[in-house]
Specification:
4-stranded mixed β-sheet; 9 strands; rod-shaped; single chain; alpha+beta; 3-stranded antiparallel β-sheet; 382 residues
């Protein structure tokens, strides 16, 4: 209205201060209900102007004053509290389960069934599981700190490597001992050698992560979801946005980690298949490990596919990936430890010893390679 200027019968009229002759009055009218209705008066004097609106005369549709432009508001997409609390509760239960199994390993470490299954390596497996569970507590959204992004990636990658590196090394030891067809040399593989292999795998993944952060560090970026922009009443436009963890080189380094972890899972599955006929149940975890690997391969494939398809669906993506982590990690712990808990509870010590005796009698025709390897494997030194 201040910029309006027109020529009337009495001369030029303007709402702008000093834009018209003084001592002029104007009537403001509006068509309401098909009639002209006086809604206010404008009086001008030298260097002064006053608009007097008539109270209760103006009527607007739905009692809402129309806007002179679109009112834009920004709304952050957040993870629903119910979903976050539920997933965190399940992850916390998984950590408690891992700690309970760790205590079981310590208390019954002298039991033959537990000792023959490499309790030290099983403890490493539990440590990796707890690292994987911890990633659920770190939201990939609603943060302004890049350190949260880095911690989430590092915890999951290293935890995954430790967990399935432990399964891989256990299967590798069984494969090395019981596939010695020529029986020309004694093979004793200690736990420290397996821990060294796990350390090498972790070092490789850590090297990739360090290079990743050095070249293209993770940071929090704000992404506006243009496809989800919608209008509300009274010309209000809602533009949703999310805070996401991003890296400029995530494609290259991410796929490098996928390939390394995929090769680890594939080789572990191959070794589990090769040792499936070993008959000492307490020593051989190939069937359980194979089941864990197949379970994780399926969940990893589902999680990876959905993460590529639902890149901007942060809420759904968080729920799916966290669910895959919780299910896969929990199944791994239960499949590996339930047979041992059952063996200890059922007191099958005698049965295990009889199986070991049968194995020794079957190898008497050749050098005592496998027998010594088995005895070394079950010794307290490792």
């Amino acid at each position: 209205m201040a910029d309006s200027s027109l020529v009337g019968i009495s001369g030029r009229l303007s709402f702008k201060d000093g834009g018209a002759d003084p001592d002029k009055s104007m009537v403001l009218q509006r068509i309401q209900g098909g009639k002209r209705v006086n809604v206010g008066y404008v009086t001008q004097a030298t260097n002064t102007k006053q608009i007097n609106w008539l109270k209760g005369v103006l009527k607007w549709k739905d009692n809402k004053i129309p806007r002179d432009s679109t009112y834009v508001t920004y709304r952050e997409i957040t993870i629903p509290p119910v979903m976050y609390i539920t997933l965190c509760t399940l992850a916390a239960c998984g950590i408690i389960l891992a700690l309970s199994l760790f205590g079981f390993n310590i208390v019954f470490r002298s039991n033959r069934s537990v000792k023959m299954s490499s309790p030290n390596i099983n403890n490493m497996l539990l440590f990796g599981c707890m690292m994987c569970y911890s990633t659920v507590f770190l939201k990939p959204t609603e943060t302004t700190y890049g350190a949260v992004c880095k911690a989430r990636v590092c915890l999951f990658c290293i935890g995954f490597t430790v967990t399935f590196g432990a399964l891989f090394t256990k299967t590798w030891r069984v494969h090395r001992i019981f596939t010695n067809k020529k029986l020309k040399m004694v093979r004793t593989i200690k736990d420290y050698q397996l821990l060294a292999i796990i350390g090498i795998l972790v070092a490789v993944i850590s090297g990739v992560l360090i290079a990743w952060e050095a070249v293209g560090p993770h940071s929090v970026v704000v992404q506006y979801l243009e496809k989800e922009v919608h209008m509300e009443g009274n010309d209000a436009e809602i533009r949703p946005f999310v805070r996401m963890c991003r890296s400029d080189y995530s494609v290259y380094f991410g796929w490098a980690i996928y390939i390394i972890e995929g090769a680890l899972l594939s080789f572990g599955a191959f070794l589990a298949w090769e040792t499936r006929h070993v008959k000492i149940e307490a020593l051989n975890d190939s069937q359980q490990i194979g089941l864990c690997l197949y379970n994780v391969v399926v969940l990893s494939a589902v999680g990876l596919t959905l993460s590529l398809l639902l890149e901007n669906e942060v809420v759904m993506l968080y729920g799916i990936t966290s669910g895959c982590i919780i299910i896969g990690t929990t199944v791994t712990q239960l499949v590996v430890f339930l047979p041992k808990i059952h063996a200890v509870h059922s007191k099958v010590e005698t049965a295990v010893q009889n199986n070991g005796a049968m194995f020794k009698s079957n190898t008497r025709s050749g050098p005592a390679t496998n027998t010594k390897a088995t005895d070394d494997h079950t010794s307290d030194k490792h």
